[in-house]
């Protein structure tokens, strides 16, 4: 799974949480923290997506994602330890800890991976009933989930 598939929704959740915290309790800290961290993650996810479209990795995005998630884990983890309130500190700390682990995994495994292009044409030779040779060209179409479809061209 690619990092931007989780980063952009994670950022949107943080933005929504910050806005909800501001609307319900008037907390400017929730607004600034949620919107600031969320927009940072959305930006990092966008950078990673654009790099992926070019078949490259954006290591700036990986670092930005990891640092933001680790900071949220630390800050919200401390807040949960002090208040013992599951919402929002415990949930944000837990999700951020999972995301930090995911980002560290992506960094240690080399980032987003790209499938190599393979030669997908196979030429087959067979003898028919009258002993004449015929050549069949078979094309294998590789789908995203590694199913193979064979199309025979005579």
Summarize the structure.
Helices cover 63% and strands 15% of the residues.
Polypeptide structure, described:
With 154 residues, this protein is α+β, with helices and mostly antiparallel strands. It folds into two domains: 3-108, no CATH class; 121-153, no CATH class. Helices cover 63% and strands 15% of the residues. It contains four helices and three strands; from the N terminus they run ααααβββ. It has helices at 3-25, 28-53, 59-83, 86-108, and strands at 121-127, 133-142, 148-153. Strands 1-2-3 form a three-stranded antiparallel β-sheet, with no helix packed on it. The longest helix is centred in the N-terminal third of the chain and has 26 residues, at 28-53. It is elongated. The chain starts with a helix and ends with a strand. This is Protein FATTY ACID EXPORT 6. The chain crosses the membrane at residues 7-23, 29-47, 59-80, 86-105.
């Amino acid at each position: 799974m690619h990092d931007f598939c989780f980063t952009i929704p994670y950022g949107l959740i943080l933005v929504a949480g910050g806005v909800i915290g501001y609307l319900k309790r008037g907390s400017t800290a929730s607004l600034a923290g949620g919107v600031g961290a969320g927009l940072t993650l959305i930006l990092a996810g966008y950078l990673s997506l654009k790099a992926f479209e070019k078949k490259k990795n954006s290591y700036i995005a990986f670092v930005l994602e990891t640092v933001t998630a680790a900071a949220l884990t630390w800050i919200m983890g401390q807040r949960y330890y002090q208040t013992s309130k599951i919402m929002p500190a415990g949930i944000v700390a837990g999700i951020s800890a999972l995301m930090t682990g995911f980002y560290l995994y992506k960094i240690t495994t080399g980032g987003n991976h790209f499938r190599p292009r393979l030669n997908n044409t196979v030429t087959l030779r067979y003898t028919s009933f009258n002993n004449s040779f015929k050549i069949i060209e078979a094309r294998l179409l590789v789908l995203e989930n590694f199913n193979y479809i064979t199309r025979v061209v005579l």
